[in-house]
């Protein structure tokens, strides 16, 4: 685990040294990816545009945050900024210099990342909703393909920015943000394949 953590710290340092000028961008991304913005911004907008999507967003945010908490209780997970100061791994060498930012120090465990998990879930719902609205039956195949490529590229670019932001801020190790995105995509697929189709939950989502 120490090796995984130390290689994660190297990536944190690489980002902090080489992308220092992007600090405000990374801070903004972490601020924007906080689930509070789903409740205060995305939910009201989508509820106004399409009630069903608004309600789905709310469910995904609430269940996603709850799942993240449960995962964190089981997996726990260090956070890079604290780990470099507490580990014995660097006992015989100098401590790597990891910069702290105003939003670096989160109080909970680190694995998996709540920001990565939350933004994956929320953007998954919004992208699939935009696809449903954007795709009409008589549209040429090429246009449909372009819309798919455009929206899914946007989805993965946003996820990459959120992951890079959490690592840059030294709030997470790379494997924690990766786990956050992957676990939420699995949850979404399970939700779509099983929960949503189950008649027991008809009318809830
Ligand atoms: O695990 P991370 O990325 O530091 O995020 C933790 C926080 O992420 C936020 O999005 C949630 O609303 C919080 O409940 C949670 O504590």
Description:
There is one protein chain. The mean pLDDT is 90. The chain has eight helices and no strands. The chain has helices at residues 2-18, 23-32, 36-49, 51-75, 80-86, 114-134, 141-168, 174-195. The relative contact order is 0.17. It is 70% helix and 0% strand. It is elongated, with a radius of gyration of 19 Å. It has one domain (1-6, 22-199). The protein starts with a helix and ends in a 10-residue tail after the last helix. Helix 4 (51-75) packs antiparallel against helix 6 (114-134). It has 205 residues and is mostly helical. The structure holds 6-O-phosphono-beta-D-glucopyranose. Residues 34-36, 65, 106, 108, 113-115, 118, 166, 171 line the site of 6-O-phosphono-beta-D-glucopyranose (BG6). The chain crosses the membrane at residues 25-45, 57-76, 116-135, 147-171, 177-195. Pathway: Carbohydrate biosynthesis; gluconeogenesis.
Topology:
Blueprint: H1 2-18, H2 23-32, H3 36-49, H4 51-75, H5 80-86, H6 114-134, H7 141-168, H8 174-195
The structure holds 6-O-phosphono-beta-D-glucopyranose.
Residues 34-36, 65, 106, 108, 113-115, 118, 166, 171 line the site of 6-O-phosphono-beta-D-glucopyranose (BG6).
Membrane topology: Multi-pass membrane protein
Subcellular location: Endoplasmic reticulum membrane
Domain Phosphatidic acid phosphatase type 2/haloperoxidase: 53-191
């Amino acid at each position: 685990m120490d090796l995984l953590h130390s290689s994660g710290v190297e990536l944190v340092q690489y980002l902090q040294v080489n992308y220092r000028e992007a600090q405000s961008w990374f801070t903004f991304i972490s601020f924007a990816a906080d689930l509070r913005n789903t409740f205060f911004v995305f939910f009201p907008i989508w509820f106004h545009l399409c009630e069903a999507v608004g309600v789905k967003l709310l469910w995904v945010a609430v269940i996603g945050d709850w799942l993240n908490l449960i995962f964190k209780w089981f997996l726990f997970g260090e956070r890079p900024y604290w780990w470099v100061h507490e580990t014995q791994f660097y006992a015989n060498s100098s401590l790597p210099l990891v910069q702290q930012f105003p939003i670096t120090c989160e109080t909970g465990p680190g694995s998996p990342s709540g920001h990565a998990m939350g933004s994956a879930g929320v953007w998954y719902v919004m992208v699939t909703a935009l696809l449903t609205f954007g795709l009409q039956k008589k549209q040429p195949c090429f246009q449909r393909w372009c819309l798919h490529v455009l929206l899914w590229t946007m989805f993965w670019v946003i996820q990459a920015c959120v992951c890079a932001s959490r690592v840059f801020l030294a709030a997470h190790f790379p494997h924690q943000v990766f786990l956050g995105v992957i676990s939420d995509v699995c949850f979404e697929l399970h939700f779509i394949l099983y929960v949503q189709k189950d008649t027991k939950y008809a009318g809830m989502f």
